[in-house]
């Protein structure tokens, strides 16, 4: 029997391994999480920061595993009936294959079970694939944070988005 912390997905997509494990991250996953974090973000979060989101009572951390390797994760914080997506990462050689969408659909299910109705996030204005993903899941732009992200050439804006209908959103 699969616990509420673990879900197995079978895929017919030849680009995705046949068995995919989607589950809440645990302390034992910290090294795999840190490795993927470093692969996807510069600078990466520290091990202690990542650990705090795995064990935090007001946090949700979900990982997608393929062939025993963590290929995608989401880290969120929650307060009352709202959540904030803090990190969403997909291993570079697996981007564009729908892993982030699967993880976010799972996250939405988990948030609904906790009575959370709104999820917020910020995303680089240049990150067209992420913006498209978020819009496809019902997120709408709520604002812009000018010059929020550092770049090699200066600064980049953050687009502030939220999904305010988690109780109604579909996971199809």
Task: Give a short overview.
By secondary structure, the protein is of the alpha+beta class. The protein is built from four helices and eight strands; from the N terminus they run ββααβββαβαββ.
Walk me through what this model shows:
By secondary structure, the chain is α+β, with helices and mostly antiparallel strands. The protein has helices at 30-40, 47-55, 99-113, 128-136, and strands spanning 6-10, 19-24, 59-66, 69-79, 82-90, 118-124, 140-151, 154-163. The chain has a domain at 6-117: Gcn5-related N-acetyltransferase (GNAT) (Aminopeptidase). The protein is 26% helix and 40% strand. α1 (30-40) crosses α2 (47-55).
Draw up the topology in text:
Elements: E1 6-10, E2 19-24, H1 30-40, H2 47-55, E3 59-66, E4 69-79, E5 82-90, H3 99-113, E6 118-124, H4 128-136, E7 140-151, E8 154-163
Parallel strand pairs: 5-6
Antiparallel strand pairs: 1-2, 2-3, 3-4, 4-5, 6-8, 7-8
Largest sheet: 8 strands, mixed
Q: Per CATH, what is the topology of one domain?
A: Aminopeptidase
What would you say the CATH architecture of one domain is? 3-Layer(aba) Sandwich
Query: Unreliable runs, pLDDT <50, ≥5 residues?
Result: 1-6
Gross geometry: globular
What is the level 1 CATH name of one domain? Alpha Beta
Distance between the termini: 23 Å
**Order of strands across the main sheet:** 1-2-3-4-5-6-8-7
